[in-house]
Write a structure and sequence with these properties.
Blueprint lengths: L1 H37 L7 E2 L4 E2 L8 H4 L3 E2 L6 E2 L10 E6 L4 E5 L5 E6 L3 E8 L17 E7 L6 E4 L5 E7 L2 E9 L2 H5 L6 E3 L4
Parallel strand pairs: 11-13
Antiparallel strand pairs: 1-2, 3-4, 5-6, 5-8, 7-12, 8-11, 9-10, 9-12
The structure holds zinc ion.
C-alpha cells in the first residue's frame, strides 16, 4: 500500500511539472509572438492581397494565385481587365452527364471534349484549397469567358452571372477551349454580353 501511495504521489508531482512546463511554453510563445508582430513581420497575419487579417499562416494565398484583388468592404473580387485568370475552378456538366471539374491554366484556359451535341452549365469559383481564406469556394461573377471549338474558334464570348454561372446550349460535338479574363467596366455594363450562349440550329 505504501508503495502505491509513493507512486501516486510521484505521478501527481510529475504531472505538476508537466503542467508547469506547458504553461511556461505557452507564455514564452505568446511573448515571442508579440515580439514578432512588433518587429513589423507579421508573417501570415495580414494579407496584402486579401486585405484581411488571418489568425494563422496564410500561404499560399488564393488571391495571389488567381491574381485577383479582394475588396475588403464589399467582399468583391476584382481582376484586371483583359488579363487571363489562372487557377480558378470551372465546374459543371452536361445535362445527365458527368461532372467536369477544370482549373484554368497559366493562360487562363480550360479545355473539354464534347462527345455529342448538348447543353452545359458551368460555375466559375475561387478554389477552396486554402480554408483560411474568406473567399475559398466563392463563385466569381462578372468575368469574361471567351472561346469556342478548337483549334481556332473564339466566337463565343460570355460573362459570368453574379453566381459565377455560364451556359452553353446546343453546342455541337468537338473539342472546346475557353479563356477566363478580367472584364472591363464597359464589358460589365454591356447588356449585350450574356451568360448564356445558344448555338443556332440549322
Ligand atoms: Zn490572402
Amino acid at each position: 500500500m505504501k508503495k502505491r501511495a509513493v507512486i501516486a504521489a510521484f505521478l501527481l508531482f510529475t504531472s505538476f511539472i508537466v503542467l508547469a512546463q506547458v504553461e511556461t511554453t505557452t507564455l514564452t510563445e505568446i511573448q515571442q509572438g508579440a515580439a514578432v508582430s512588433k518587429a513589423k513581420l507579421p508573417k501570415g497575419h495580414y494579407c496584402e492581397y486579401c486585405k484581411l487579417n488571418y489568425p494563422e499562416s496564410h500561404f499560399p494565398c488564393i488571391m495571389k494565385s488567381i491574381k485577383g484583388k479582394l475588396d475588403a468592404v464589399t467582399g468583391e473580387i476584382n481582376f484586371t481587365a483583359g488579363q487571363p485568370i489562372s487557377g480558378i475552378v470551372v465546374k459543371g456538366s452536361k445535362e445527365n452527364g458527368d461532372l467536369l471539374t477544370l482549373t484554368t491554366n497559366e493562360k487562363g484556359e480550360i479545355e473539354f471534349n464534347n462527345t455529342a451535341t448538348g447543353n452545359y452549365k458551368f460555375v466559375v469559383s475561387v478554389p477552396s484549397t486554402n480554408p483560411n481564406s474568406r473567399v475559398a469556394g466563392s463563385p466569381i461573377g462578372g468575368i469574361v469567358v471567351k472561346g469556342g471549338k478548337k483549334p481556332k474558334d473564339s466566337s463565343i464570348t460570355l460573362i459570368t452571372t453574379e453566381n459565377g454561372q455560364i451556359e452553353l446550349q446546343n453546342i455541337p460535338a468537338g473539342k472546346y477551349k475557353f479563356t477566363a479574363l478580367g472584364a472591363s467596366e464597359d464589358e460589365k455594363n454591356n447588356s449585350l454580353l450574356k451568360s448564356v450562349y445558344s448555338e443556332k440550329v440549322n
